[in-house]
Specification:
The relative contact order is 0.18. This protein is 49% helix and 16% strand. The chain contains 1 helix and 2 strands; from the N terminus they run H-E-E. The chain is of the alpha+beta class. Residues 1-20 form the signal peptide. Keywords: Secreted, Signal.
């Protein structure tokens, strides 16, 4: 029974770390005062922050 409980806790921890990785990149861009936008946007000042998708970049808002 204890083993089942420990496996359940491990599963919850793994789910939280996987879901937190994508949010972390977007927060990095938002902290710089930007937003993740597609590359075909015009008039965008590109910031060094990372976005979740390769087709997007961090633009100053």
């Amino acid at each position: 029974m204890r083993l089942l409980y420990l496996l359940f806790l491990l599963l919850i921890c793994l789910i939280q770390t996987v879901s937190g990785k994508g949010k972390k990149k977007n927060l990095e861009c938002e902290k710089m005062g930007g937003a993740c936008k597609y590359q075909n946007t015009h008039g965008c000042v590109i910031l060094p922050g990372e976005c979740r998708s390769r087709k997007k970049h961090c633009c100053r808002v």
